[in-house]
Each structure stands twice: as structure tokens, then as C-alpha cells.
Amino acid sequence: MNVTGDQALVKKLNKSIVLERIRLHAPLSRAQLSSQTGLNKATVSNLVAELITEGLVYETGLGESSGGRKPLMLLFNSRAGFVLGIEVSVQYIQGALTDLAGAIEAELVLPLGQHDPAFVMEQIRKLVQQLMQVTPPSPHGIVGIGLGVPGMVDESGTVLFAPNLGWEEVPLQQQLETELGLPVVVDNEANVGAQGELYYGMDGEHRQLVRDLVYISAGSGIGAGIIIDGKPYQGAWGYAGETGHMTIDWNGRSCTCGSRGCWELYASEKAYTAPALSLPAHSTAKLLPFARQGDADTLSVFRDIGRYLGVGITNIVNSLNPGMLIIGGPLAEARPWLEQSMREVIDERALPYHRRQLQIRFSTLGSRSTMLGAAYAATAPFLGRVRVSL
Ligand SMILES: [Zn+2]
What element of type H or E holds 152? Predict the structure, then answer.
């Protein structure tokens, strides 16, 4: 390895460490940064000066002094740039313009009547253009676009297989980067949803405690975003988390994936179209008013979905032993009617040691976890989170 390359990498790493520290723990003085990061004061001063020039950090007021001159405190300028976070789902695409700390500046939803890739691309382009028009002026402008899609995505951002969209091998990231001229990140919707919950759905203290988390996205299908030891778990080729297609009924109904008896046939919105049912509507949003009015069929279907969610969650908890499990996606809105039956099944069936300290929660971000997680995924590379691979 060449020495100059090493020095440049070390500097980049140090700079990202300093920025991350300020981002998560500001206000901080240069002296505090130095003692917290272990970097010497001259290095910290140089890196901070660069971050100030780049508009990412600014100085403010005076901090507490331990005698002598009071230090200037450093803050993160979350409005130094903006990102777009987009969720492509079966029925719609929704996008948010956020600052570099995930605060939403504008939101937009466009319906998706059809799913052929050219049409979806056209809708994404429209959404991006409209959100760009309302982006406030900032030193860096729009620094990236993140997308969460309901399917398997490889490392190059190609959607390999999205059965609910009918997509195979769609090079979404490459096409969008070419057309829009901005860095684009494409990942599975549950993977980015997990990041949304972790980085924008809980405070820093909680984040420190939760090293092992599973985010279940339950909507038109089911996907899981798995975080192990603080890092997204992708599997050997990036396809981990397709929990919606684990078999829970050996002889069950056939699924779009080619298998049968898949979990999502019973515990997602796909359950609404089961042959024996006659529901007043076939989307969660449309069923919620019926549940509120006490419609017996609607209440019974939510109760059953709760039970089936409990079955799949039990399998996940027994296999992975997560510290926290978060349920998100459109079905999380039906929490009042499915939570009890879901918890009963988990209490009855999950192994006692696995259950003991497990926290089960519903998403705090609601239908925004994927969008915000996609925004986070687009922000992270810009903020210089350097990945070192050996
Ligand atoms: Zn399946």
C-alpha cells in the first residue's frame, strides 16, 4: 500500500469521526472533542476548520470553562445540504425531502397504477423534480437520493427480484444516477426501514443499547431489516431478511415467489384476499374505519393477522434472539386490533430465555420509516462514513 494513500484515508476517517461526534453529541468544544476521540488538539483544530469551511459545522456561544477562557462550542449544521428519501411500494411512491439530520422539509405521494419499470421511473422522476423545486438554498444542495423498494437488491442497486412489482433485474440505481446526475442508493425497503427506526426513530441512548434489532415491515408483503451488533445484516449475497417467504404452512396457498404457505400470505395485506373471506375493503387504510366501527369481519381478520404475525415473530425471535423487534409498515396502523392476539402467540410460543428481555414495539415513524431510512442511507455516504474493507 502506498503511504500517501494511507495518510489520506486516515485523515478521512478522523474527519468522519470528528463530524459524527459533533453530529450526535453537540454542543462540544474542541478540547472535549480531543479528549473524547483521542485525537490530538492540533488535529482536531485542523479538521474542525475544514468542516467549518465546508459549512457542516458552526461555532456558537460560550461553553462551561474549567478555569480560564470560555471555549466556543461546535454544532452540526444539519441544513448544510438536503437529501431525498423515497419509498416505492405496490400502490404508491412517497418521497420526503429531509435535512442531514432527517428533519422533513416536504413530502409527496404519487399513486402507482401500474408497475412496469419505465412508468415507475417516470413517476420517480416527477417526484424528484417536484421535491427539488421546494428545496431551500444550502451550501451543498441535494447531496443524494435514497430509495427503498419491496424486493431483493444487489450491491450495485439493481433490483433482482420484486415479486409484488413483477420486476426482475432492473438496474434502478444506475439508471437514476445517469438521469439525475446525483448519487443514488437503492436498498430493500425493510433494510432501510430498520435504519430509519434506528437512526431517526429513537434517541442516542436507546441506540447505544439496541445492538441487535429486527424491523418487520408488514404491508402488501412482509420483509425484515436485520441489524446485528449495530450493523445491517445483509447475508452472503445481500438477500437476507426475506422473512415474508418463510414457510409457515407446508400445504398452504401458493405464493408469487413460487413457493406455498409463505408467512406473508397470512400476516400481510395479502390475507385480505383469502378465498373464504368477504371483507368490505382490501387495503389497511380502507379497513381501519370499519375496524373503528366494530365491523365483525374486519375485527376478525385483524385478530387472525395478529396471530400469524405472532407465529412468524416467534420463529424470528427463537432464531436470532434480537434485543428489540419493531413492527412497521401499513399494518402497524391496525395495532389496536392485532396487537393483543400477536402478543398472546409470542408469549405462548417463544422460548422463555429469548422472550425474557425482548422489547417488542410498533414503529414510532409509522408509514415514514422506509422513506426516512432511505434518506438516512443517502445521507451517510455524504457525511463521510468511510467503510474500510480488508
Ligand atoms: Zn412466497
Answer: strand 152-153
Ligand 1 center–CA 263 separation, angstroms: 7
Tell how far the Cα of 332 is from the centroid of ligand 1, in angstroms.
Answer: 21
Please answer whether residues 291 and 328 qualify as being in contact, where contact means their C-beta atoms are separated by less than 8 angstroms: no
How many residues does this entry show for the chain? 390
pLDDT in tens, the chain (390 residues): 455 678 888 888 899 999 999 998 889 999 999 999 999 999 999 999 999 999 999 998 766 666 677 788 999 999 999 999 999 998 899 999 999 999 999 999 999 989 999 999 999 999 999 999 999 999 999 999 999 999 999 989 999 989 889 999 999 999 999 999 999 999 999 999 999 999 998 887 777 778 899 999 999 899 999 999 988 898 888 889 999 999 999 999 999 889 999 999 999 999 999 888 889 888 899 999 999 999 999 999 999 999 999 999 999 999 999 999 999 999 999 999 999 999 999 999 999 999 888 999 999 898 899 999 999 999 999 987 654 443
Between the CA of 34 and the centroid of ligand 1 the distance, in Å, is 52
Ligand 1 centre from 305 Cα, in Å? 16
| Ligand 1: centre distance to CA 258 (Å) | 6
Q: Is 303 exposed, middle or buried (0-12, 13-18, 19+ CB in 10 A)?
A: middle
The answer as to CATH 3.30.420.40 being correct for domain 82-194+371-382 is: yes
262 C-alpha to center of ligand 1: Å? Answer: 5
Which CATH number fits the domain 3-76, given the four candidates 3.40.50.450, 1.10.10.10, 2.40.50.140, 3.30.200.20? Answer: 1.10.10.10
